[in-house]
Write a structure and sequence with these properties.
471 residues, alpha+beta, Penicillin V Acylase, Chain A, 8-stranded mixed sheet, 8-stranded antiparallel sheet, 14 helices, globular
Length: 471
């Protein structure tokens, strides 16, 4: 055999290995995103399969692609002639079947059944400060901080902490002391900037629920999307108490504001990131203009206003008034639902204006993602397929039953970190943590009682118990 033939075959083998790595990572990415084996096979049957850039292996980085690289190099090599007359498409199908089988065997996420998923801890915080939650959940707080360092980098966390600390002090923020205590208790920088970060996308909807058992009245459906990993795995259900009454905060250790929650007998609420206001034709310029407006503002961030509402508002009407009338530092979209007839709305907020979309019992439900529907303003939608997510949830709301069976693409996507359904009248909620690879926790079902009732119950498993504040 001549040197030329050897070189040619060596080059073919190298090309086969590279193709195998690419294909393995594509297949792994499809499985990591929850597509399953059929989805991967459909993807493999496209003519351009071998030539697409490697798909991002969400949450697991490149572990699956690296594991399957050898298999791909054997089956995906263009120089293998032992298959004779078999077509290229058969090679690809065999390759993907082998990849899927190997992935299922060796990947712990795929092998986990729903019964093996960890439960969401239920923590009784009462009226104690958020720093007490950090002290009780140090491992989860450290895991989130580590993910933030990878997501934002350490220099950005340090610089962001300094800027956010200054802004909160200049604006006389009522939660400055709580955030300072949290930041001091964390093992490194990040406590300030993470408490001011609102770079997520969400889908929320509210509607009357006459199709549900008596006692439901209205319900809130909600999915939170964010690129930072670890939020689904480290989710907590925290029972808190304020002057307005008890409530459940679906949150994370170290976060002082509130993104979503349930106050039994009073209301349930959540907020979505608003679109970036389009003032020019350049996204970067519009982003800079909004940040300049925020820096000059001295009002509450959206998460801090929602925390105040859960602590203080005694009913739906008071919560709605506070969410509509309180000046804000940033635009936002609130979803609010109460226990009584007609108590359901979406509030699209600018810094000093409110546009309310009501969901009456005889009308269509209202849903929101991350684009304006009532303000008439032009903006850059946030997240993935904002209009499709909102339309899908609006279709789902009238038929959605108990639990989280309503959750489906595109509302559910690779960025989803939390799914929630809440009924203020009955005090019931269902919540589950998600990561890019799929469900990260078991579904937690709680039945919280209003202050006049006897006490709360919960159902996540047979031996589910509230997590103690102290180790």
């Amino acid at each position: 055999m001549g040197l030329g033939n050897l070189a040619s075959q060596a080059g073919g083998i190298q090309g086969g290995i590279q193709g195998g790595i690419q294909g393995g990572r594509q297949a792994g990415g499809e499985l990591e995103r929850g597509g399953g084996v059929p989805s991967v096979l459909r993807h493999a049957l496209t003519p351009e399969f071998r030539f697409r850039p490697p798909a991002l292996v969400y949450g697991a980085e490149a572990k699956t692609g690296d594991l399957l690289a050898g298999a791909g190099s054997m089956v995906g090599s263009p120089n293998l002639t032992a298959f004779g007359a078999l077509s290229n498409i058969v090679h690809q199908v065999l390759f993907i079947v082998f990849c899927a089988t190997t992935y299922i065997i060796f990947n712990p996420v795929m092998s986990n059944s729903p019964e093996n998923l960890p439960e969401i801890p239920v923590v009784d915080l009462g009226d104690r400060p958020p720093a007490a939650l950090v002290a009780a959940q140090r491992e989860r707080a450290a895991a989130l901080l580590a993910a933030a360092r990878q997501n934002f980098t350490l220099p950005l966390l340090i610089a962001g902490d300094a800027a956010c600390r200054l802004w909160l002090a200049r604006s006389n923020n009522p939660y400055w002391a709580e955030i300072a205590e949290v930041a001091a208790s964390l093992p490194g920088p990040g406590g300030w900037i993470l408490n001011m970060s609102h770079e997520w996308a969400c889908t929320s909807g509210v509607a009357a629920a006459p199709h549900l058992p008596e006692g439901a009245e209205n319900h809130l459906l909600r999915a939170l999307d964010w690129r930072m990993p670890g939020l689904g795995e480290n989710l907590l259900a925290v029972r808190r108490r304020g002057p307005g009454g008890p409530w459940v905060d679906l949150t994370w250790p170290g976060f002082v504001g509130t993104i979503q929650g349930l106050a039994p007998g009073r209301f349930a609420a959540a907020f979505n990131q608003a679109p970036l206001h389009r003032r020019t034709r350049l996204f970067a310029a519009d982003w800079a203009l909004q940040r300049r407006r925020f820096w000059r503002s001295r009002h509450l961030p959206p998460a801090h206003l929602l925390r105040r509402v859960f602590d203080q508002a005694r009913d739906f009407a008071e919560a709605k008034s506070l969410l509509c009338r309180t000046p804000l530092a940033l635009p936002v979209i609130y979803a609010l639902v109460g226990p009584g007839p007609g108590e359901a709305c979406i509030i699209e907020r600018l810094e000093d204006q409110a546009f309310v979309r009501e969901a009456h019992p005889d009308d269509a439900p209202v849903a929101a993602a991350n684009h304006w529907q009532a303000t008439g303003l032009s903006g850059y939608p946030r997240g993935l397929e904002s209009e499709k997510r909102s339309a899908r949830l609006a279709e789902t709301l009238p038929q959605a039953g108990g639990g989280l069976d309503w959750l489906a693409p595109p509302v559910l996507n690779e960025l989803t970190r939390l799914a929630l359904r809440a009924e203020p009248a009955s005090g019931r909620l269902w919540v589950q943590g998600y990561e890019a690879y799929g469900p990260a926790t078991a579904v937690l079902e709680l039945t919280e009682t209003s202050p006049v009732d006897k006490g709360p119950t919960e159902k996540a498993s047979a031996d589910s118990r509230p997590a103690a504040l102290a180790h």
